[in-house]
Amino acid sequence: MKFFISGPPGVGKTTVFLRVIELLRSDGLKIGGFICPEVRRSGRRVGFKIIDLMRGDEGWLAELCESGGPRVGKYCVNTEAAAAIGVNAIKKALENADLIAIDEIGPMELSVPQLKSAIYEVLGSNKVLLAVIHWKLKDSLLKSLSLKNQWELFTVSVSNRDWIHKTLYSKIRTSLY
Q1: Hey, which residues does 133 pair with through a beta bridge?
Q2: What domains lie within the chain, and their CATH numbers?
């Protein structure tokens, strides 16, 4: 089963995602995959990290453009770090995790061919997945999934962001057993 979180920017998707992960870890489950938190300096967003959820390895996914790499908005993607950390995190999760968690599947992550391939490997696998999908990609990504893959979309809003993590947690626990 695949569980997706989406919603408009700034609504709390990552917070919901992290709350679900915390609840599942407290149950002793092994969570693998990666997160891509934003990095701010002096209140200004300067980029995004990519962090392996199992090992803690991290690097820059994207920074304000000063060097090469695919450009997404005003950010340049660090394809080497994204591939090394993201792909490795997914491979380890496919081998060893109870649940694969990805925050997020978005334009930056999909601009790195190796990482895109690894993400699509997870989407086609039998592993349970919790992933945040960039709101602009949600429709096209979900339409591309084959019907054999069961999935459910949770749209985070201001009215549900304080409790929707409990619903997601319950559904994920049920699908794991």
Answers
A1: 105
A2: 2-37+86-176 (3.40.50.300)
